[in-house]
Amino acid sequence: MTQVAEPKSARVVVADDQTVVREGIVMLLGLLPGIEVVGAAGDGEEAVALVAGLAPDVVLMDLRMPRCDGVEATRRIRAEHPGTQVVVLTTFADDESLFPALAAGARGYLTKDAGGDEIVRAVHSVLSGDAGLSPGIQRRLLERLSEAERGPAAPSEPLDGLTARETEVLLLIAEGLSNPEIARRLHVSTATVKTHINNLFTKTRLKDRAQAVRYAYAKGLVRPPAG
Hints:
Layout: E1 10-15, H1 19-30, E2 35-41, H2 44-54, E3 58-61, H3 70-80, E4 85-90, H4 95-103, E5 108-111, H5 116-127, E6 132-133, H6 135-150, H7 164-174, H8 179-186, H9 190-204, H10 209-218
Parallel strand pairs: 1-2, 1-3, 3-4, 4-5, 5-6
Helix pairs in contact: 2-3, 3-4, 7-9, 7-10, 8-9
């Protein structure tokens, strides 16, 4: 009688700078079917080193870590070790961390309140070539892409050294949106909006929002209303 081989377990590295959280995730994964934890890292540098030495199938990657954050670690792992997939597992579900992580090559994104079954599905989804995104994250990604299609196009070349996000904030200032309104539009905190505004004011040598509006018109980023 021919015996059917059991599916191979996914070899996983866990990266999280908080010891209690990291050990808790490792303990949870140890109870899940189809998962074998082969290493644990306390920061992004250690995660990259473990991937080089262990060649795991998947890294469950925290984003906010010292020395090398999860986004940069993801970028390096995907560039240097394309056989290893990355699933972001983080406390924060804000777009400031979500989109850079996906742009860096993460194939999955889960918050740390995800259940064991959800983690297993995400791990095996990315290994089969699919995206391991939770339904809520998928919805937010589609919303963000839809907003990007509706919004005004940013200039293809950097303007006075502004980043794409700083230019986006400038355009929203020109629309007359307040900081809380910009925060809601971009799905970020008001403090993050203030940081972007301070940065763009410094780079463009602007002093206030009125000057920012005039600057946006002068640079052709927005057009006066017709009529």
